[in-house]
Write a structure and sequence with these properties.
alpha+beta; 355 residues; 13 helices; 14 strands; Penicillin V Acylase, Chain A
């Protein structure tokens, strides 16, 4: 099984968005419906969600007008209001506003082997199982000759991805004491601007610092020769480099000592520490050249071991059910991603989708 793909032919932001919205209307409206159910289950009212969506779009228009135009274009193509597409892009911010909690989420490994060899990366992407049809792969050209390829959710402008400047990103959610309901720039749009504009870790960090946010996340940036986890929260932005061994591992807790003082996710659901320890204990396998081998090294199921590969407990409400929906590696030399639909326990050489 593979994720649906779409290649934009339009270069104007509004036209590009409208083209995507037209061709992926069913998937985008379905994704919005799934998030509407999630927010309602977590305690938000429709009126609150609309206000948050409108605020997110306004913040986007002030920080990245071209991305706001693209959101408006997607809405036009999909037959939605712009604030509704903004809701999909601001789902992290809305969940922070609701103060939603949950055990699942993603694990990321980056190893810089040195000696001129390319980085070895792999990530699991965990999310709610009722949204398993949301992911898609999208290729676009935000500037002449600059191509972006992203694994994202239908209607969201970016998530995990790579560009033809040779920069790629992984993406994990975080939670911080300073997260607020005063919705700021959506972190998914920070990821998109990094893919659109950055070729170095420093450029990516500068983009992150320029945004006023209300929710936390970490964007792990990788190029052919460098990597860093850019931890983003309302309390500030921190750049966490690899260790002396070239290893950079991230789950869902802050690594920067100053930001870690306000840690929320791990204080309520400490499984992130267990997953991080599993990665650290298996660095040798995560350092291998073969992506299938790296993905299988990730493999670990709860409750007895670190739940890096998540499967939903169907007895739980939908906002407490988690599934590893994708396993992803970045191929920096080829400027491509390799994507597997599902968790590491289902990975074989034949299941990778090259994008």
């Amino acid at each position: 099984m593979t994720f649906p793909t779409f290649t934009s032919t339009q270069t104007d932001p509004h036209a590009r968005g409208k083209e995507l919205g037209t061709h992926r209307r069913k998937q985008i409206t379905g994704n919005l419906a799934g998030y509407t159910d999630l927010f309602e289950t977590a305690g938000a009212t429709p009126a609150q969600v609309r206000v948050w969506g409108e605020r997110a779009l306004d913040r986007c228009a002030g920080w990245a007008p071209r991305l706001a135009e693209e959101i408006t274009g997607i809405a036009a193509g999909a037959g939605l209001e712009p604030w509704q597409v903004a809701v999909v892009n601001a789902r992290t911010e809305i969940l922070a506003a609701i103060d939603a909690t949950g055990e699942g989420e993603c694990s990321t490994s980056v190893v810089l082997p040195g000696g001129g060899l390319p980085p070895r990366t792999v990530q699991t992407w965990d999310w709610h199982d009722h949204l398993r049809d949301a992911p898609m792969l999208w290729e676009l050209e935000p500037a002449p000759g600059h191509v972006v390829r992203t694994f994202t959710e239908a209607g969201a402008l970016a998530k995990i991805g790579i560009n033809t400047a040779g920069l790629g990103i992984h993406f994990n959610i975080l939670r911080h004491d300073t997260d607020t309901a005063d919705v700021g720039v959506p972190v998914h749009l920070i990821a998109r601007r990094i893919l659109d504009e950055a070729a170095t870790v420093e450029e990516a960090a500068d983009i992150a610092r320029s945004a006023t946010v209300s929710a936390s996340t970490v964007i792990t940036v990788v190029t052919g020769s460098e990597a860093a986890s850019i931890e983003i929260s309302p309390a500030g932005v921190a750049v966490v480099p690899p260790g002396p061994d070239g290893v950079l591992l991230h789950c869902n807790h802050f690594l920067d000592p100053a930001l870690a003082v306000g840690e929320r996710h791990a204080t309520e659901r400490p499984g992130t520490y267990i997953r991080h320890r599993h990665l650290r204990d298996n660095v040798e396998g995560l350092s291998g050249e073969d992506l299938t081998g790296r993905a299988l090294t990730m493999l670990s199921h709860g409750p007895d071991d670190a739940p890096v590969c998540a499967h939903p407990d169907l007895s739980q409400p939908l906002n407490q059910r988690w599934e590893t929906l994708a396993t992803i590696g970045l191929d920096l030399p080829a400027r491509r991603m390799r994507v597997h639909q599902g968790g590491p326990c289902q990975v074989t050489e034949a299941t990778w989708q090259v994008f």
